[in-house]
Amino acid sequence: MRLKTNDLYYGAFLLSGGGRLEGFDVEDLGSRRKIFFEFSGDQLQTLSKEYLSGGATANVRELKGALKHLKDIVLNQGSLTLKEKHHS
């Protein structure tokens, strides 16, 4: 299964729960840009249901690390090479 989101917290939850970050895309919206992260994994459907229902639980250390990783991508996206952008 694959999921795509621009929600950092949702993405961090998916990543910390075992989802695999496949890459990201930047969408230009005039004066703003949105970054969409794409995840894959067999457990994404379960993780998604947990998160969207409000019943999600997570290892706080792993969640914090995943959030930091995604934030680093957002902050550095302008300096990444094309290869890094699609294989982060």
Secondary-structure map with pairings?
Elements: E1 2-5, H1 8-16, E2 20-29, E3 32-40, H2 44-53, H3 60-76, H4 82-86
Antiparallel strand pairs: 1-3, 2-3
Helix pairs in contact: 1-3
Characterization of the model:
This protein is of the alpha+beta class. The chain is 47% helix and 26% strand. The protein contains four helices and three strands; from the N terminus they run E-H-E-E-H-H-H. It has a three-stranded antiparallel sheet with strand order 1-3-2. Helix 1 (8-16) packs across helix 3. The model is unreliable at 80-88 (pLDDT under 50).
Q: Give the radius of gyration.
A: 13 Å
Provide a count of the helices.
4
Flag low-confidence runs: 80-88
Please summarize the sheet with the most strands.
3 strands, antiparallel
Helix coverage percent of residues?
40-55%
- Order of helices and strands, N to C? EHEEHHH
**Beta-strand residue percentage:** 25-35%
Strand order, biggest sheet?
1-3-2
Report how far the terminal alpha carbons are from each other.
18 Å
Mass-distribution shape: globular
Average pLDDT: 87
